Amino acid sequence: MDTQVKQPNKLDSASSIGQMMADSFADIKRQAAEGKKVVWANGLPGFLLARGADMPVLHAEGFIAGLAARGQEKPLQDAAEAFGLLPDACSYARSFIGLARIAKGHFQLESSMHESICKMPKPDLYINVPGGGCATGRLWGDSVAAICDIPAFHLEPRFCWDESDREHNIADFVRQERELIALLESVTGQPYNWDRLKEVLVEVKKATSLRQEIMKLCQHVPAPASFFDMAASIGLVCHLVGVPGTGDLLQKMKEEVEHRISQGIGCVPVEKYRLYWDGILTWSRLGVLARKFAALDACLVAGPYTHLLFLPRADMIDPERPLQSIAYNVCDTLANYDYSHRVKAVADFCQEYSIDGLVMSETQTCRGINGQSFALMDGVARKLGLPAITIGGDSCDPRFYSDAQVDTRLQALLETIEARKKIRQVQAD
Amino acid sequence: MNVAVGVDIGSLTAKSVVLDSDCRVASYKVIQGKIVDEAAAVASLQQALAAARMTRAEVGFLVTTGYGRNMVSFGEKNITEISCHARGAQFLFPGVRTVIDIGGQDSKVIALNGGGSVVNFAMNDKCAAGTGRFLEVMAHALEVPLDEMGMLSLKSEDPALISSICTVFAESEVISLTAQGRSRLDIIAGIHESIARRMHSLVNQVGVSSPVVMSGGVAKNAGVVRTLERLLKTEIILPPEPQIVGALGAALFAVEELKKNVEV
Amino acid sequence: MSESNVSDIMNRFRAVVDTPYEKLSTWKEANGKKVVACSPMHFPEELIHAAGMLPVVLQETGEAVTAGFSHVYPFFCGITRNIIDIAAKGELNVLDGVVYTDICIQNRNAACTLRQIMPTVYVGYLQLPTSLTREGVMQDTIRELEKTRASLEELAGHKIDDRSLEQSILVYNKNRSLLRRLHELRRGSPRLLGFRDMQVVVKSSMLMPKEEHSGLIESLVAQLEKVTPSPLEGKRLFISGHLCQSPKADILDVVEGVGAAIVDDDLYTGYRYYAVDVELDGDPIECLARRYLNKSIPIPTRSDITGIRWEEYIVQRVNDIGAHGVVVLIAKYCEPHIFHYPFIKQALARAGIPHIMVETEHEVVSLEAVRTRLQAFVEMLG
Fold this sequence. Notes:
Chain A is an alpha/beta fold. Chain A has a domain at about 15-195: 3-Layer(aba) Sandwich (Rossmann fold), CATH 3.40.50. Chain A has helices spanning about 15-35, 45-50, 60-70, 75-85, 90-105, 110-120, 135-150, 165-190, 195-215, 225-230, 245-265, 285-295, 305, 320-330, 340-350, 375-385, 405-429, and strands at about 40, 55-60, 125-130, 150-155, 275-280, 300, 355-360, 390. With about 260 residues, chain B is of the alpha/beta class. Chain B has helices spanning about 40-50, 80-90, 130-140, 150-155, 165-180, 185-205, 220-230, 245-264, and strands at about 5-10, 15-20, 25-30, 60-65, 75-80, 100, 105-110, 120-125, 210-215, 235. Chain B is globular and about 65 Å long. Chain B starts with a strand and ends with a helix. The relative contact order of chain B is 0.19. With about 375 residues, chain C is of the alpha/beta class. In chain C, the strands form two sheets. A four-stranded parallel β-sheet of chain C has the order 2-1-3-4, with helices on both faces. A four-stranded parallel β-sheet of chain C has the order 6-5-7-8, with helices on both faces. In chain C, helix 10 links the parallel strand 5 and strand 6. In chain C, helix 1 (about 5-15) packs across helix 8 (about 195-205), helix 1 (about 5-15) packs antiparallel against helix 9 (about 210-225) and helix 7 (about 160-190) packs parallel to helix 9 (about 210-225). Classes of the chains: A alpha/beta (about 425), B alpha/beta (about 260), C alpha/beta (about 375). Chains in contact: A-B, A-C, B-C.
C-alpha cells in the first residue's frame, strides 16, 4: 500500500461541468456574433440581473479560474503586465484586465490556439459587485470599462459594521439593484424581463439548495466528497448560475454522494485527517493539491470559499421576491461581517464538519478574503483548540505557489494533529 | 597625452577601462572584491593603468559608475550604470536600441532611441531572482561549477518547471526536484528558463526593439542568452567582454568631459 | 510667544511629527481633551473638532512591523501593517477613538482588526459611498455623516450642534488656505522650503490643533515671503501618488538630492489635503457632504466617471507647472494606485512627459537602488 500512489476519488457526476462551462462561453461568442450586447461581470448579483435582461454575460472569476486550472492564464496576465499593472495586484483582476486588452486588440496573442482560448467578445457593459465587499472589484471594473470605453455599474453592498445595520443594508442593496435594472433596460432598449429573472431564480433556488444539501452530507465521516469536488463544481453556482440543467446535475451529484455514504466510500482512499481551507483556491494547482492531500491521508473537507460565499442563503431565495433574495445573499453572508462573526461561523463550521486542523492559504494577491485570517486562526484555536498553518499561494497566479513549502508545512500540521490525538488518547485512558 | 578612465564599482566586482582621447581602449581590468570594496576599485584602476603603461597623473578625467559610485574617494563625476551601459553598448554596437544587463546583484533593461539616448529603463534591484546571484545559489545547491551551468542547460530537452519568483523558494524547489529524481540537466534548464522569464517580464515593462545587446557577467552564460532569444524572438548581440560595458560607458563620458575641458 | 524664525517654526512642526502618538499622550495630559484619530483620505475632521475633541489623521511611523505579523499578512500596504502593528503594541491606546472610512479593502480589514485588538478604544466606520455616479449619493453621504455625528456625540458626551460645526469648518478652511498659500510660494520658488519640510508642515497639521498650526503657518509664510527667490537650477519634477501615507523623508531627499527639485505634487499629505475647502453655504453636514463629492480633484479611492480622470489631471498639473518629468510614487500594495498606474503611464507617454515609477515600502530597504534609478532618470532628462 505504501508504494501505491493514493489518488483522490473525484465525483463522476461533476465531470460534465467542464463541457457545460465551455458551451456557455461558446454561447456568449455566438450571441455576440449575432449582435447582442455583452456584459462582463464580477460577483453574482450583476450576473443574475443581466441574465434576467436576456444578455449574454461572462463571469470574471469563473472564466479566469477555469483558465488557471488548465494552466492557460498566462497570456492574460502578460497582457496586463505589459500594460503596466504590477504583479502584486489581484490576479483575478489582472487576468480580466488582460482579457479586456486582448478583446480590444491592444495585446497580440502569440498563436491561434491562444486566440481560441483567451479571446472573448468585448463587453458593452461592466457590472461590479465586489465579492466580500472588496473595493478592488470597483478598481478592476473601472479599468475594464476604461479600456473598452464602456459604462461600469458598481453595486455597493454596505458592510455590516453593526448588527443593527443589517435590514437597512438589505433595503439599500435592493434600491441599487433597481437602479441597475433601469440601466439594463436602457442598454438593451427593452423592458426588463422579470419573468426571465424569476425563471432563473427558480433554477438558482433548486441548485443552491441541492448544493447546500450536498455540502451538509459531507459532514459524514468519511467525507463522500471533498472541498476539491465542491471547487470543481463551483461553476454551477457561479458562471452557470441559473442556467437550466444545473439543478439536475446537482441532483445527480447529490445522489452520487448519498450512494457513496451508503457504501462507506470516501473521497480519499484513507481519511485520517479532516482539514479546512481558508482563502481562495489555488486554481492553478488544484490537481497537485488534491493529490498531495490524498497521499497524506488527509481529506480537505470544506472551506468558506465554496461553502459560505456564493449564494449561501438558499433559504432566503424566493423567486417571487428576486431583488430581496439576491440582497440577502450578498448582505447577509460571511464576507459582509467582521471577524467576530467569522470566528463564530468558522468555529461552528469546523465542529459540523469534524475538522482537525486549518490550512490558511495566503492568497497573496488578495487583500480582501484574508484580512481577518489571523483573527480567525486565533479565535478558532481558542474555541476549539485546532492547529493551523498558513501556506503560500494565490488564486490564479502560479508564481506565488511553492510546492516544497506546502509539503513541509502540511506535514507539520498533520504531525501536530497526530500528536494532539495521542495526548487526548492518553488523557482519556 | 591624457587618458580617460571609467571605473564601475559593482557590489562584488570592480572594473576599470582606460581610453585614449580617440576612444581606443588602451586597457581594462576586472577585479573580484568584497562588498563595494574601495580596495578592489583602486586595484582595478591601478592594474588597468599599469597595463596601459599610464600613471594616475596622466588620467585627464575619471568617471565612476555602479552601485559604489558614490562610495569611493576618487573620481571627478559619477554617472549611473544605466546611462553608462547604454553609452558603452552604443559605442560597441552603434544603433543598438535595447540593452539587457544582468549583473551579479541586479538586472536592468534600457531602451535607446535612434540617436543613442536613453528613453526608458526598468530595473530589478529588489531581489536576487533573475540576477547572477540566482545562478550562483542554484549552482551551489546543485554542486555544479557556475561556469558550466549555461552549457549544461542547453543539453536538456525537457526543462523542469520552477515557478517561484523568490530565490529562496526556488532553491527549495530545486532541492525538491532533485529528491524526486528529476535529471540534473532538466533542473538546470528549468533554472535558466526561470531567469529568462523574469527578464522577459522586465523587458516587457520597457518594450523590446532590435538590435538587442546583452551586457553584464551573465551574458557569458549561453543558456540564459539562448533562452532569452527564444522568449524575445530576437537575436541578442554579445560584446566580447560583457562585464566591462558599464566601465566603458563611464570612460566614454570621461572622454566627453576631457574634450569639454580642452575646449574651455 | 513669537516664533519668528523659520528654523524654530520647523522645529516645532518636527517635534509634533516625530513619534506622534507619544506626543499625543503628553498633549492629552496637558489639555484634558479627547483625541480621535481618523483614517486618511476622506474623513471630515471638522466633525471631531466640533465635538471639542482633537482630530488627528493616522500616520505611518518608522517602526519595523513585529507584533503586527500576528494580525496581518506581509503583503498588505505599509500603513495598514504599521497601524495594526502599533495598535498591537498598545501605542494607540492613547486614542479615545479611531474612525475609518471605506476607501479600500485593506482599510476595511484594518478597521475590523483594530476593533478586535483594541477593545478599549472606540472604533467607528464611516461608510461613504464610493461609486459616485449612482443615484442618491448625496443623501447616502448625508445619512452616513449624520450617523457618524451621532457616534461622535456619544463619544464626546455632548451634542455637536450646527453652530459648532460651522465654526470648525471655518477653522479648517483657514488652515487649508494658509497651506495653499505656502504651496503657491513653493511653486514659485521650490528651494524656499525643501519638499521634505513641506511634508512635515502638512503632517503636523494632521497632528496638532488647527488653530495653533494656523498661527505657526502664518508666521512661516510671513518669513518666507521676505526671502528673495533664487533661480532654480536642475530639473523640475512633479511628484504624484502616495495616497494615505506620507513618503519617507529619505526617499524625498534622494529625489531632491540628484539635482532635481519637487515643484508640485498631488500627494495626500500634500496638495490633496488642502486643495479644496468646504463651501459653507447652508446646512453644515450638507456642506461636508458636498466637499466629499467634489470632483475637481480625481481620487482613486472612489469611482467617478463624470469627473476628470486622474491621469488627465496629472498631465494638466505637469503642464501647468512646467515640470520636466514626473516621479510616480506607489506605496507597495496600494491597489487604488496600482490599478490607475497603467493609465497614468499611458497618458504621460502620449503627452510626451517622461516619468519614473518608484515603489516604496514601509521598511526602507534599498535607498541606493532608488538613488540610482532617480539619478538615471534625471540623467535621461538631459
